[in-house]
Design a protein that fits this description.
This protein is mostly helical. The chain is built from 4 helices and no strands. It folds into 2 domains: about 100 residues; about 45 residues. Helix 1 crosses helix 2 and helix 1 packs antiparallel against helix 3.
């Protein structure tokens, strides 16, 4: 789409420059031969050419504005992709560092994690036992109070 817009813009620019070149050539020709000037520069022809030129210039302006918008959209999309690439590159580097750990380091990390999990397991076990004991005693007390 961007390529099409740019191609259209350059075509319009080429047509405009070609018309300007023709006008300059015809101007020089009319200076050299005044009879030719009257045949070439009739009012109805110049008005049509000027109107066509204005229309083409307007189209060129619109096309250039649209191409500027497209360029801005493409730049924004590229920035988003560059950020995603940077994030993925960072994650890949982290994964590579983890993969490069020696067997000894991996075993040390695994042992540390197992020890931490085991400590938490013991803590949780005794905490659960204490809560169960509390509810057991509370149940006995409530039973004795209600039963009397």
């Amino acid at each position: 789409m961007l390529f099409t817009a740019l191609r259209h813009m350059f075509q319009m620019l080429w047509l405009t420059l070609r018309e300007v070149g023709q006008s300059v050539f015809l101007g020089i020709a009319t200076l050299l031969n005044p009879a030719l000037a009257e045949a070439i520069w009739r009012p109805e022809r110049t008005q049509g050419t000027e109107a066509a030129l204005e229309v083409r210039l307007e189209e060129l302006s619109n096309t250039m504005a649209r191409s500027a918008e497209l360029v801005a959209e493409v730049e924004a999309a590229l920035e988003v992709r560059q950020a995603a690439v940077a994030k993925l590159k960072s994650e890949a580097e982290t994964a590579q560092r983890v993969a490069e750990l020696s067997e000894e380091h991996r075993n040390a990390v695994a042992t540390l994690l197992r020890g931490t999990v085991a400590k938490e397991g013991k803590k949780t076990f005794w905490l659960g036992a204490l809560v169960n004991l509390f509810f057991f005693v509370a149940g006995v007390v409530v039973t004795l109070l209600v039963g009397k």
